[in-house]
TrEMBL record:
Protein name: VWA-like domain-containing protein
Polar residues biased stretches: 197-214
Family matches, as Pfam families: DUF2201
Organism: Xiamenia xianingshaonis
Compositional bias per record (Low complexity), positions renumbered to this chain: 275-286
PANTHER family named in the record: SLL7028 PROTEIN
Start and end residues of each stretch annotated as Disordered: 194-288
Length: 546
């Protein structure tokens, strides 16, 4: 019995080693063709994991969980597919897909990530490492482009999300919900269940975790067990197992099922509570769920951001050497590396120090302290001071670009979002002096708020005015005059919401100024003068405030 167990373990370890060799050869082939990917290709360690998942590979950003039987089967099917699988997963990390937590519809976002990664992979290497499904993928990508225009993550996500929400039998802009099944089959290549952004409730990827079969599990003839480096030849040589025995597909499946401590168990019975309990147990025991737990997820995210930026800089400088195939890659990298800010934290930076009537537990009257020590020995009398120095925002200017190129609905949502932050934050005094200025090429309206309690009434009266050209100078001249005459004596700064397509002041003002842009993936964010701050926020942060 012990000898049989030892033999089983030996064969299992050989299969693990073979899977690792195949993945290493995928890395080598990609490195030979794309030297700029060197930092990304070898960054993650390999972890053999027989999870029973739908696809051979999964990553948590720190390591790669690979299912040895499926890796071998995928290799025997077509080595190019193995290479494309690994490139697809690496692109997810470079685009920081595993760390995105800004999309509520995980099914739609997961498929969007696959569409973006696979479209870039096709541009990079469809001629070097072609796939049998590339022609059909191009046809579906043409359909998506026809629906959304430029292939950008936000646009693709909106399309997929609307299709997910579309009832069965209904169509969204001529597409039925059933087309999603085709897109999943064409663009998915790896498991997303281990992504750090994956919520605890699970995702569509979980369906693959309980499905122990796939087209890759079909019994290949005499699977290989050895792999030698092959230089420029993309097809590595293989030899049989050391003991001359072949592992059939059934043996591999049985071995994986018997030896994997995290294998999913089927729950018998039709009772609803039993089924729910079985699902919860499967989620808890799922090996990929455990693999997802990375103690250094935040550091991994920063590391991937550094690698992504380094690759972007290298391609931007020497992109011509790699041909037109890298243009879409550079574009998506630039979007992924575009810096976004926490608008709430940014507004707090405008706080100024002032004295408030508050109990200050950190300071007290020393006269009472000394009197207590003298009267009672070692017992001081401590009375906290009734005033405290705090950082508060009082004088503040919100300037709104109401030119024709800025949507009025976004302007209203931005103002509401800003005032929501002001009302909820302790850094803002209740008695304020906030000037809201609407301007295009001239000042259209100025309204002053003295108490944050009046914000709701202000929003009811708000009407967007303007829709002409864009010139920022009138607002800066007007605010500068108010600083001079004392109407904004304690002004800390000005926030200007705009698309940036206007005339900036030539000289720096006496106060801090920030230009806030809505993140638009279809164009580059305009430059601002060196004395100003550029802030980019996502439209998703403004949703639900209209």
């Amino acid at each position: 019995m012990q000898k049989a167990m030892d033999e089983k373990l030996r064969r299992r370890l050989e299969e693990d080693s073979l899977g690792k060799d195949i993945i290493d050869e995928c890395r080598a082939q990609l490195m030979l063709k794309f030297r700029f990917l060197d930092l990304a290709l070898w960054r993650m360690e390999l972890v053999p994991l027989r999870s029973g998942a739908r696809y051979p590979l999964a990553t948590n950003g720190s390591g790669i969980a690979y299912d040895p039987p499926r890796v071998v089967a995928r290799y025997r099917q077509d080595f190019n597919e193995s290479i494309r699988d690994y490139l697809h997963m690496t692109l997810h990390c470079l685009f920081k897909h595993p760390y995105d937590r800004d999309h509520d519809d995980f099914e739609a976002w997961s498929l969007t990530c696959d569409v973006m990664a696979e479209s870039v992979a096709m541009d990079l290497c469809s001629r070097r490492f072609p796939s049998a499904d590339d022609t059909e993928r191009r046809g579906q990508l043409d359909t998506i482009r026809m629906m959304v225009g430029d292939l950008l993550p936000s646009k693709v996500y909106e399309l997929v999300h609307n299709l997910v929400e579309c009832p069965d039998g209904r169509a969204y802009r001529g597409l039925r919900r059933e087309v999603l099944a085709d897109w999943h089959a064409l663009f998915e290549r790896d498991e997303h269940a281990a992504w750090p952004s994956m919520n605890s409730q699970g995702s569509p990827s979980d369906e693959g975790l309980s499905n122990g079969t796939s087209q890759d599990d079909e019994d290949p003839d005499d699977p290989p067990s050895g792999l030698e480096a092959s230089g420029d030849d993309p097809q590595p040589s293989v030899e049989g197992l050391d003991d001359g025995r072949d592992l059939s597909g059934d043996e591999r499946e049985q071995e994986g099922a018997d030896s994997s401590a995290g294998s999913l168990e089927e729950t018998a019975g039709t009772d609803g509570e039993q089924e729910a309990s079985g699902a919860e147990q499967a989620q808890a025991d799922d090996p990929l769920t455990n693999f997802k737990q990375s103690a250094q997820a935040e550091q991994d995210e920063r590391d991937w951001e550094d690698v992504s930026k380094q690759i972007e800089m290298e391609l931007s400088a020497f992109g011509n050497e790699w041909g037109d195939g890298t243009s879409s890659f550079i574009g998506i990298l630039a979007l992924a590396n575009r810096k976004r800010y926490d608008y709430s934290e940014f507004l707090r930076s405008f706080a100024v120090q002032s004295e408030e009537i508050l109990v200050n537990p950190e300071e007290f009257d020393y006269a009472f302290y000394s009197y207590g020590m003298e009267l009672y020995g070692k017992t001081p009398l401590i009375e906290p001071l009734e005033y405290k120095e705090t950082d508060r925002v009082r004088d503040f200017v919100i300037a709104i670009d109401t030119s024709e190129s800025v949507k009025g609905e976004l302007v209203r949502r931005f103002i509401e979002h800003t005032f929501d932050i002001l009302k909820e934050s302790s850094e803002f005094a209740s008695r304020v002096n906030i000037h809201v200025i609407q301007a295009d090429n001239r000042i259209q309206q100025e309204m002053v708020i003295k108490d944050l309690k009046d914000v709701d009434a202000f929003m009811e009266r708000l009407q967007i005015r303007g829709f002409g050209g864009t010139d920022f100078r009138p607002v800066f001249d007007h605010v500068g005059a108010m600083v001079e005459d004392g109407r904004l004596a304690d002004l800390k700064g000005l926030v200007y919401f705009t698309d940036g397509l206007g005339t900036f002041p030539e000289s720096a003002p006496r106060f801090d100024a920030a230009f806030v842009f809505l993140n638009d993936e279809s164009r580059d964010v305009p430059s601002v003068p060196p004395w100003a701050t550029k802030l980019i926020i996502d439209e998703t942060s403004l949703k639900g405030r209209a």
